[in-house]
Amino acid sequence: MRLVLVGTSHHHAPVELRERVALDREQGAELAARLAAAGGEAVCLSTCNRTELYVAASNVEAAERAAVAALAEIEPEVEQALYRLRDHAAALHLFRVAAGLDSLVPGEGEILGQVRAAYEAGTTATLLDRVFRQALHAGRKVRAQTAIGESPASVSSAAAALAEQVFGDLDGRSILLVGAGKISEQAARNLFSRHARIAFVANRTLDHAEELAARFGAEALPLERIEEQLASADVVVSSTGSPGLVLDAPTVERALRARRGRQLLFIDLAVPRDLDPAIHDLDGCYLYDIDDLDAIVSETLAGRRGEAERAEAIVAAEAEKFREWQASLDVVPAIASLRARAEEIREAELRKAEGLLGRLDDSQRRAVESITSQIVNKLLHLPTVRMKQAAAAADGVIYAEAVRHLFGLGEDER
Amino acid sequence: MAELLFWPALLFYGEAAVGYLGDVRRPGVPGRAAIWGVRLGWLAQTALLGVQAAREDGFPWSTWAGSLNLFVWFVVTVYLGVRRPYRLLGLAVMPLAAILLVVARAGGGTGVGARSHYSNLFLVLHVGLVLVAFAGFTLAAALSAFYLWQERRLKRRAVTILRRPAPSLATLDRLASRTVLVSLPALTLGLAVGLIRLLNDGERVDAVIAATAVTWVVWAAYLVLRSTRGWTGRRAAYLALAGFALVIVVRLALPAAHFA
After folding, report:
1. Which of A141, A235, A270, A345 has the smallest number of CB atoms closer than 10 Å to its CB?
2. What is chain A's mean pLDDT, rounded?
3. ipTM higher than 0.85?
4. Where are the domains of chain B?
5. Tell me, which fold does domain A2-145 have in CATH?
6. How far is CA B112 from CA A271, A380, B71, in A?
């Protein structure tokens, strides 16, 4: 069995093309089952950044042609943007994908779940089972041993991560949004996805506030009522188009008296700024503006690139293990035949000695069985190990042929 | 035998301290090596305490140095209990553990053969409870120091704040206060047992008892001000460090008088 990969990704195709070959879980499963129908295996991995077909088959050329045809059938234009990889290269690619190294934002964690879902929906057997399980293992290992996925890659996710640095778990933490535009909404979504409660949306135009508030089950407020909510809010995210300050330090200071020492995080995403920089100097208050968040994101992305080098090394080691395993498949039939032949001889010799063995009691008979089995196993152990080692070093086929010739394996069938 | 066990304990605690330092610079292998250092050091020290207990008829940690040895063990035990989410606490706890273990040895607290004229039950209750409380206060102080460090990073808007994330302010503050909430009753009971003994024997209050009482007041104030005045966060952290300074004074500067 050989491994074939045919696919396209954000590196090779624009979103207009990728979206035309994007498949949902059922469509992917159906396509995989169709490709595997001829006795092979297939998995379809389709996300917003890639659609890839992994096929295991004896005839790689035919499998590759079938995979290309399947994608071209969905969208003929995609053929020009397809890459084709085989065996070790295909496995390495899958491991990099699972580790998030091939993602638009290196280290993003969602892809690992998508790879798992694709594997579960695929039609798999020995080879794809192994390569996908090892890919998932490589992905988990990269996340456990490097910090590649720990840092946020956008301003709004950085704001949410900062809130976690102050409050820990955001479950139930109260968020006050000031401004009802796209930026506020994006920040709110990030906080909401971490189980924070979007409690209030304040805006100069109340209609807009109500519209956004309805999406998160929050209360809409006019800007004038911000101060009264400062006593209960944990995070204030501000992004209005106001030319001047929306909230000054003395107002916040007044609200702090009712907070009894609880921390308050301010995120100012507006330009010009909405929040008085002096708020940051107040005890228990932390204010981050767009420049601060940009600097943090740049730093974390630089960190991700550094971590990516370590992740690449982990992935390469895993791919090498897969290569060795795949190479060992070349000698598996020879090893199986050799062991079967040895067992056949052992049983035949025991049958010949039936006259003598017939006088033995059950326990003596079991002892003879055990001793002869052990002799066979010990004799075959070293040749088996050596053949697998030779397979890993690419000499497996030669060794397998030699073993077949020396022991006359398969001659009966010829 | 006790001597043979002291050195691996010190070696592993020292290795853990260095490992945690390395983990701050580059997370990964040094951190894992540090964790194993804590575990193996703790096992060696536990064995050391076991040998001391086996060789003595009475309570083997009745000297100030012996009690310091036991105190280090309590601190590391408590740290092992909370280590998982607060790994970097080791940066504060393990160097302290290594240094105090050396001090305990210098005072003869890691050997065998110490004798006390007090009863075992009294020593177990008095010394045991006070040391458990002090170990808890040490952890609370380490958490508070960690809080102040993390707060400083947030105030300075350190660009590495998300690249090298630490436990959140709220978590550190909450855990420190819970630790004090458990430790203060232990200190109260330990002190009460000591005072009862003192009254029965008709002895006078010495400097250590007075300093321990002041320590009790500071930690009690920590809890009272927290619940009545909203003294959380930075103010609570400074108060915890003040309380810990008193713990150090009681532990290191004055014991000679108390144990004489």
Report:
1. A345
2. 88
3. no
4. 1-115, 118-260
5. Beta Polymerase; domain 2 (3.30.460)
6. 70, 58, 17
